[in-house]
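Sequence only, no structure available. Ideas?
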Amino acid sequence: MRLTAYPIAPPTCRGKKTGQTENARSLEMEKASPDTVVNLSRKSKEAQLIKETIEKTQDVRQEKVDQLKKEISSNTYQINPRAIAGKMISYFTNETFTS
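Reply:
I predicted one. Tokens follow.
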């Protein structure tokens, strides 16, 4: 699905001094020699490490989910309304309340 009428890049993406489009600049980058070295900043390296850690981490704590399912199906799951209310209040007021 095409969203714009521009074949390569809109005119607003042209370089300030050279008039090159983003596409032309990317072609120049591809032509860079194989000996080109890129040094990443410390923050870039940290961001990459965080990204890799997140990708390796499971989205779901399966053992916790299984335990909750078991408690719900056996009607032994206990809801603590004070804890829920306290967390809601602390979320909206940025304060910590104890139950």
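The chain has a mean pLDDT of 76.
Hope that gets you unstuck.
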